[in-house]
């Protein structure tokens, strides 16, 4: 196993991690922006108003995106395991 191969596997792992986390983080960011905009307009600065909707939005997005995320993770793992004999040379 050479350093280029290890670097490629690490790069692929980082890419799949970012690819899977981006939609959930984006939803959390969007909900946080909407809540902060609402707070700025109404001048109501309640801390629980910030956290609870973001937590609910992230959990719901994880619930709905879980099958897609699992499919991507399983595909990545299958490809890694299929290439395993070539790594051992």
Description:
The protein has 89 residues and is mainly α. It has one domain (3-83). Helix content is 90%, strand content 0%. It has 3 helices and no strands. The longest helix is centred in the N-terminal third of the chain and has 40 residues, at 3-42. It is elongated and about 65 Å long. The relative contact order is 0.12. The mean pLDDT is 91.
Q: Give me the strand/helix succession.
A: HHH
Overall pLDDT confidence: 91
The biggest beta sheet reads: none
Helix percentage = over 70%
Any idea what the radius of gyration is? 19 Å
User: What would you call the structural class?
Assistant: mainly alpha
Portion of residues in beta strands equals under 5%
Q: State the domain count.
A: 1
* Count of alpha/pi helices: 3
Low-confidence stretches: none
What general form does the structure show? elongated
Terminal Cα span:
7 Å
- Tell me how many strands there are: 0
List the helices and strands and how they pair.
Elements (H helix, E strand, L loop, with lengths): L2 H40 L4 H36 L1 H4 L2
Task: Summarize the entry for a quick read.
With 89 residues, the protein is an all-alpha fold.
Structure keywords:
mainly alpha
């Amino acid at each position: 196993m050479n350093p280029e191969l290890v670097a490629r596997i690490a790069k692929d792992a980082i890419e799949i991690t970012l690819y899977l986390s981006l939609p959930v983080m984006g939803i959390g960011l969007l909900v946080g922006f909407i809540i902060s905009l609402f707070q700025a307009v109404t001048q109501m600065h309640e801390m629980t108003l910030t956290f609870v909707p973001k937590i609910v939005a992230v959990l719901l997005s994880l619930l709905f995106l879980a099958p897609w995320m699992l499919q991507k993770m399983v595909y990545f793992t299958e490809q890694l395991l299929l290439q395993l004999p070539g790594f051992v040379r």
